[in-house]
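[step 3/7] fold_predict: job queued, chain A
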Amino acid sequence: MPRRAIISDIHGNLVALERALADIQEQKVDDIVCIGDIAGYGPDPVACVDLVRKKCAWTLCGNHDVALFMTHAIGFNKAAREAIDWHRKVLKPKWYSWPSTKSRWEWLKNLCPSKLEENVIYVHASPRDPIMEYVEESDVVDLGFGPSDKIIEIFENIPWLGFCGHSHRPGIVTNDFTWIKPHELENYTYQLPPDLKTLVNIGSVGQPRDNNPKLCYAIFDTDKKTITYRRVEYDVAKAQERFKGNPALAERNSKRIGEGV
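[step 4/7] structure written:
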Protein backbone atom coordinates (compact mmCIF):
# COMPACT_ATOMS: atom_id res chain seq x y z
CA MET A 1 0.00 0.00 0.00
CA PRO A 2 1.50 3.39 -1.00
CA ARG A 3 0.36 5.21 2.18
CA ARG A 4 -0.09 3.21 5.36
CA ALA A 5 -1.09 4.53 8.79
CA ILE A 6 0.49 2.60 11.65
CA ILE A 7 -1.02 2.78 15.12
CA SER A 8 0.01 1.17 18.40
CA ASP A 9 -0.52 1.13 22.15
CA ILE A 10 -4.16 2.16 22.25
CA HIS A 11 -4.63 0.75 25.75
CA GLY A 12 -8.38 0.97 26.01
CA ASN A 13 -8.46 4.72 25.35
CA LEU A 14 -11.43 4.98 23.01
CA VAL A 15 -11.50 8.78 22.97
CA ALA A 16 -7.93 8.87 21.66
CA LEU A 17 -8.51 6.04 19.19
CA GLU A 18 -11.57 7.68 17.67
CA ARG A 19 -9.66 10.95 17.26
CA ALA A 20 -6.71 9.13 15.69
CA LEU A 21 -8.94 7.35 13.19
CA ALA A 22 -10.65 10.63 12.29
CA ASP A 23 -7.27 12.22 11.62
CA ILE A 24 -6.13 9.20 9.63
CA GLN A 25 -9.20 9.52 7.42
CA GLU A 26 -8.19 13.09 6.62
CA GLN A 27 -4.71 11.93 5.54
CA LYS A 28 -6.04 9.86 2.64
CA VAL A 29 -4.18 6.69 3.52
CA ASP A 30 -4.62 3.39 1.73
CA ASP A 31 -4.78 1.22 4.82
CA ILE A 32 -4.27 1.12 8.58
CA VAL A 33 -2.39 -1.47 10.62
CA CYS A 34 -2.04 -1.86 14.38
CA ILE A 35 1.11 -3.20 16.00
CA GLY A 36 -0.31 -4.16 19.35
CA ASP A 37 -1.58 -3.36 22.81
CA ILE A 38 -5.22 -2.60 22.25
CA ALA A 39 -5.68 -3.84 25.81
CA GLY A 40 -4.34 -2.45 29.07
CA TYR A 41 -4.80 0.63 31.30
CA GLY A 42 -7.99 2.12 29.84
CA PRO A 43 -11.76 1.95 30.32
CA ASP A 44 -12.94 0.82 26.86
CA PRO A 45 -11.24 -2.42 25.82
CA VAL A 46 -14.28 -3.92 24.08
CA ALA A 47 -15.02 -0.87 21.94
CA CYS A 48 -11.34 -0.42 21.11
CA VAL A 49 -10.91 -4.03 20.01
CA ASP A 50 -14.02 -3.86 17.86
CA LEU A 51 -12.90 -0.62 16.22
CA VAL A 52 -9.38 -1.84 15.50
CA ARG A 53 -10.76 -5.10 14.16
CA LYS A 54 -13.07 -3.16 11.85
CA LYS A 55 -10.65 -0.48 10.64
CA CYS A 56 -7.26 -2.19 10.44
CA ALA A 57 -6.05 -4.40 7.60
CA TRP A 58 -4.19 -6.48 10.17
CA THR A 59 -3.16 -6.30 13.81
CA LEU A 60 -0.32 -7.68 15.93
CA CYS A 61 -0.45 -8.66 19.60
CA GLY A 62 1.31 -6.65 22.28
CA ASN A 63 2.40 -7.70 25.74
CA HIS A 64 -0.84 -6.47 27.35
CA ASP A 65 -2.88 -8.35 24.76
CA VAL A 66 -0.92 -11.53 25.46
CA ALA A 67 -1.39 -11.05 29.22
CA LEU A 68 -5.15 -11.40 28.76
CA PHE A 69 -4.55 -15.11 28.20
CA MET A 70 -2.39 -15.60 31.31
CA THR A 71 -3.88 -16.78 34.58
CA HIS A 72 -1.83 -14.09 36.30
CA ALA A 73 -0.23 -11.17 34.44
CA ILE A 74 3.48 -11.50 35.24
CA GLY A 75 5.91 -8.61 34.77
CA PHE A 76 3.42 -5.79 35.21
CA ASN A 77 3.11 -3.17 37.93
CA LYS A 78 0.04 -3.14 40.16
CA ALA A 79 -1.92 -0.56 38.14
CA ALA A 80 -1.25 -2.35 34.85
CA ARG A 81 -2.02 -5.77 36.32
CA GLU A 82 -5.34 -4.61 37.78
CA ALA A 83 -6.37 -3.17 34.42
CA ILE A 84 -5.45 -6.39 32.63
CA ASP A 85 -7.43 -8.42 35.15
CA TRP A 86 -10.49 -6.24 34.53
CA HIS A 87 -10.02 -6.32 30.75
CA ARG A 88 -9.84 -10.10 30.89
CA LYS A 89 -13.06 -10.15 32.90
CA VAL A 90 -15.01 -8.08 30.37
CA LEU A 91 -13.48 -9.60 27.24
CA LYS A 92 -13.35 -13.31 28.07
CA PRO A 93 -16.57 -15.06 27.03
CA LYS A 94 -18.72 -17.12 29.35
CA TRP A 95 -20.63 -20.19 28.21
CA TYR A 96 -23.70 -18.02 27.72
CA SER A 97 -21.93 -15.18 25.88
CA TRP A 98 -23.02 -13.89 22.51
CA PRO A 99 -21.18 -15.29 19.46
CA SER A 100 -19.69 -11.82 18.89
CA THR A 101 -18.02 -11.98 22.32
CA LYS A 102 -16.54 -15.39 21.54
CA SER A 103 -15.40 -14.23 18.10
CA ARG A 104 -13.69 -11.16 19.59
CA TRP A 105 -11.83 -13.31 22.11
CA GLU A 106 -10.69 -15.81 19.48
CA TRP A 107 -9.50 -12.96 17.26
CA LEU A 108 -7.38 -11.56 20.10
CA LYS A 109 -6.06 -15.02 20.95
CA ASN A 110 -4.85 -15.61 17.39
CA LEU A 111 -2.99 -12.35 16.84
CA CYS A 112 0.63 -12.80 15.73
CA PRO A 113 3.62 -11.10 17.40
CA SER A 114 5.32 -9.97 14.18
CA LYS A 115 4.78 -9.56 10.46
CA LEU A 116 7.31 -9.47 7.64
CA GLU A 117 6.40 -7.83 4.34
CA GLU A 118 9.27 -8.05 1.87
CA ASN A 119 12.06 -6.00 3.51
CA VAL A 120 9.94 -4.43 6.26
CA ILE A 121 9.34 -6.03 9.66
CA TYR A 122 6.55 -5.00 12.03
CA VAL A 123 6.69 -5.92 15.72
CA HIS A 124 5.16 -4.64 18.91
CA ALA A 125 8.28 -4.45 21.05
CA SER A 126 11.61 -5.17 19.34
CA PRO A 127 12.79 -7.03 16.22
CA ARG A 128 14.83 -9.18 18.61
CA ASP A 129 11.95 -9.85 21.00
CA PRO A 130 8.60 -8.92 19.42
CA ILE A 131 6.54 -9.05 22.64
CA MET A 132 8.54 -7.81 25.64
CA GLU A 133 11.82 -6.03 24.85
CA TYR A 134 11.87 -2.24 25.01
CA VAL A 135 13.89 -0.20 22.54
CA GLU A 136 14.79 2.98 24.40
CA GLU A 137 16.74 6.12 23.55
CA SER A 138 19.27 5.06 26.20
CA ASP A 139 20.07 1.98 24.11
CA VAL A 140 21.77 4.12 21.48
CA VAL A 141 23.75 6.37 23.83
CA ASP A 142 27.48 5.85 23.24
CA LEU A 143 29.28 5.86 26.58
CA GLY A 144 32.64 5.61 24.86
CA PHE A 145 32.58 1.89 24.20
CA GLY A 146 30.69 1.93 20.91
CA PRO A 147 27.14 0.68 20.30
CA SER A 148 25.68 -1.85 22.73
CA ASP A 149 25.33 -5.51 21.85
CA LYS A 150 21.60 -5.06 22.35
CA ILE A 151 21.12 -2.44 19.63
CA ILE A 152 23.51 -4.24 17.26
CA GLU A 153 21.51 -7.48 17.60
CA ILE A 154 18.23 -5.59 17.19
CA PHE A 155 19.45 -4.14 13.89
CA GLU A 156 20.66 -7.56 12.77
CA ASN A 157 17.00 -8.58 12.88
CA ILE A 158 15.87 -5.72 10.62
CA PRO A 159 15.91 -6.49 6.88
CA TRP A 160 15.77 -2.81 5.82
CA LEU A 161 13.05 -1.14 7.85
CA GLY A 162 11.45 -2.02 11.16
CA PHE A 163 8.43 -0.65 13.02
CA CYS A 164 7.81 -1.02 16.74
CA GLY A 165 5.91 0.56 19.62
CA HIS A 166 5.78 -0.69 23.23
CA SER A 167 7.79 2.10 24.92
CA HIS A 168 5.20 4.75 23.98
CA ARG A 169 8.09 7.04 23.04
CA PRO A 170 8.30 7.80 19.31
CA GLY A 171 11.60 8.11 17.51
CA ILE A 172 13.68 7.17 14.50
CA VAL A 173 16.75 5.01 15.14
CA THR A 174 19.22 5.42 12.29
CA ASN A 175 21.79 2.95 11.01
CA ASP A 176 24.54 4.77 12.95
CA PHE A 177 22.45 4.36 16.14
CA THR A 178 21.20 7.91 16.48
CA TRP A 179 17.76 8.55 18.01
CA ILE A 180 15.78 11.29 16.25
CA LYS A 181 12.64 12.60 17.96
CA PRO A 182 9.63 13.59 15.85
CA HIS A 183 9.84 17.30 16.68
CA GLU A 184 13.45 17.33 15.45
CA LEU A 185 12.30 16.39 11.94
CA GLU A 186 11.29 18.97 9.35
CA ASN A 187 7.50 18.71 9.00
CA TYR A 188 7.72 15.66 11.27
CA THR A 189 8.92 13.69 8.22
CA TYR A 190 11.95 11.44 7.80
CA GLN A 191 13.37 10.43 4.43
CA LEU A 192 14.37 6.78 4.59
CA PRO A 193 17.81 6.02 3.13
CA PRO A 194 17.34 3.25 0.54
CA ASP A 195 20.50 1.33 1.42
CA LEU A 196 20.65 1.71 5.21
CA LYS A 197 18.62 0.12 7.98
CA THR A 198 16.15 2.14 10.05
CA LEU A 199 14.00 1.36 13.08
CA VAL A 200 10.87 3.45 13.69
CA ASN A 201 9.11 3.62 17.04
CA ILE A 202 5.70 5.01 16.17
CA GLY A 203 4.71 6.07 19.68
CA SER A 204 1.32 5.59 21.31
CA VAL A 205 -2.26 6.52 20.52
CA GLY A 206 -3.69 6.01 23.98
CA GLN A 207 -0.79 6.44 26.45
CA PRO A 208 1.99 8.74 25.13
CA ARG A 209 5.03 8.86 27.41
CA ASP A 210 7.38 11.38 25.82
CA ASN A 211 6.09 14.31 27.91
CA ASN A 212 3.61 15.16 25.17
CA PRO A 213 -0.03 14.19 25.81
CA LYS A 214 -0.96 14.46 22.11
CA LEU A 215 -1.70 11.07 20.57
CA CYS A 216 0.92 9.79 18.17
CA TYR A 217 0.95 7.58 15.11
CA ALA A 218 2.93 7.40 11.87
CA ILE A 219 2.31 7.25 8.13
CA PHE A 220 4.62 5.15 5.97
CA ASP A 221 4.70 6.26 2.34
CA THR A 222 6.13 3.34 0.40
CA ASP A 223 6.47 5.32 -2.84
CA LYS A 224 8.25 8.35 -1.40
CA LYS A 225 10.08 6.22 1.21
CA THR A 226 9.12 8.56 4.03
CA ILE A 227 7.89 8.29 7.61
CA THR A 228 5.62 11.10 8.79
CA TYR A 229 4.62 11.42 12.42
CA ARG A 230 1.23 12.76 13.38
CA ARG A 231 0.83 14.39 16.81
CA VAL A 232 -2.83 15.12 17.31
CA GLU A 233 -4.68 16.81 20.16
CA TYR A 234 -7.70 15.00 21.52
CA ASP A 235 -10.14 15.56 24.38
CA VAL A 236 -7.92 14.32 27.20
CA ALA A 237 -10.32 15.59 29.86
CA LYS A 238 -13.13 13.53 28.35
CA ALA A 239 -10.91 10.47 28.29
CA GLN A 240 -9.87 11.04 31.89
CA GLU A 241 -13.49 11.17 32.98
CA ARG A 242 -14.02 7.74 31.41
CA PHE A 243 -10.96 6.44 33.26
CA LYS A 244 -12.09 7.93 36.57
CA GLY A 245 -15.57 6.49 36.16
CA ASN A 246 -14.20 2.96 36.37
CA PRO A 247 -13.30 1.83 39.91
CA ALA A 248 -11.26 -1.09 38.56
CA LEU A 249 -8.67 1.30 37.11
CA ALA A 250 -5.95 2.99 39.17
CA GLU A 251 -5.99 6.78 39.34
CA ARG A 252 -2.45 6.74 37.97
CA ASN A 253 -3.70 5.49 34.60
CA SER A 254 -5.90 8.56 34.19
CA LYS A 255 -3.30 11.03 35.42
CA ARG A 256 -0.63 9.82 33.01
CA ILE A 257 -2.60 10.56 29.85
CA GLY A 258 -2.91 14.20 30.92
CA GLU A 259 0.84 14.56 31.38
CA GLY A 260 2.15 12.31 28.64
CA VAL A 261 4.34 10.34 31.03
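[step 5/7] annotate
Residues 3-259 form a domain with the Purple Acid Phosphatase; chain A, domain 2 fold (CATH 3.60.21.10).
The chain has one domain: 3-259.
exit 0
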